Amino acid sequence: MGRHRRWAPVAALLPPLLLTGCVVSVGGLPSVAEPSRADVEAGQVEVVGTDGGPVDQLAANALADLQSFWDEQLPDVFGVAFEPLSGGFFSVDPDDVDPGVYPQGVGCGTDPRELESNAFYCQADGAANSDSISWDRAFLAELAGDSGRFLPALVMAHEFGHAVQARVGHPRTSILTETQADCLAGAWTAWVAAGEGEYTRIRETELDQVLGGYLQLRDPVGTGEFEQQAHGSFFDRVSAFQEGFDAGAEACRDEFGPDRPFTQAEFTRDEDLATGGDAPYAEVETLVADSLPQFWTRAFDEVLGGEFEPPSLEPFDGDPPSCADDPDLDLVACPDDGLVGYDDTDLARPLYDEIGDFAVLTAVSVPYALAARDQLGLSADDDEARRSAICLTGWFAAAVADGLLADVIRISPGDVDESVQFLLTRARDESVLPGLEISGFELVDLFRAGFLEGASACTVQ
Prior knowledge:
3-stranded mixed β-sheet, alpha/beta
């Protein structure tokens, strides 16, 4: 995928994963009015310890469809027949355990009371209930309450991904193993989204919730990439899921080698650990004003060709510059006036307080990218331009992450996660990207394409 060549001249790049708008279409998913799928009957998927409630039903429905999906995909993609899980499935309420229900414990003989706030696949030679999936149903209910009804199915898909790995082999490190399982879950979710699941369904709007759910499932910010139980940052996990959703199980098989890059990293300075990596708000305006002009000057000089003339950056308080088309805009690009503006009061400060400093840079990067497109002789005020600007913002974030702007800005753990949070929570506001009818899922996909592939994915050639 050319993951380490994001700054190379466009002509030298390998063909990008995502072309023509940089994003897979998720249109045509079920609408709210469509009927629900029938539930799988209890005898088809036996769950030890189930209370028969809605969360366990969602899990059982997903497990039935996962078995169908991998029965088809495992031979086609990995060249081996799918063998059903031999150890079974276990649901537990850790606060109300009847030991008689679990005479040999749950997966690999684990005490069911140790399953609190967890779900896991386990395979161990000689262990009781090996090759099984176990879960805390109260934990799944909490995830569903916070991030939508598909989250229990997503957790089952991730754990089933580990069952697939047990059959075909898994990567050497924890973070590769976990994100590959996220990728496999994404491949299954795309199959469900296409209407192939007999018992499970997902609506387009729920895809945003699925991505948002990974914020709860990421490692704590500052976890090292090579820690023993590392699962990945918010961006790492979302990126892996979308890779499977976009490109299928083949990508999960092929793209999780030892050279796969991750954004997860440890804090290296005590002051960053104390602040969560955020600069004081008073310094954010300087970071914006220094980093964006330097990035685009280099981008024009080294990749795109031509000479970049940095527009002036103008923070404003509620009322945008007179060149703005709409008085309610929080982000403004006025190429004819050589100006990019952002609302300090209604956008930048809330983003900083609610998400972090890099969310502010991500937001301001969007109109700045529109101004750059104008200097390339490209449109700066239509849907294609806005999609491209999101992609180019991913390219900018990658340059920061790669240390290419280290003399003016350096990345902190969790910064790229903040970009994803902004895209899922605020970027679709009419005051931010007016008139752009696009899901948060698609916005993140555009950003991801720019982050991983650079300019060639962003329709600026």
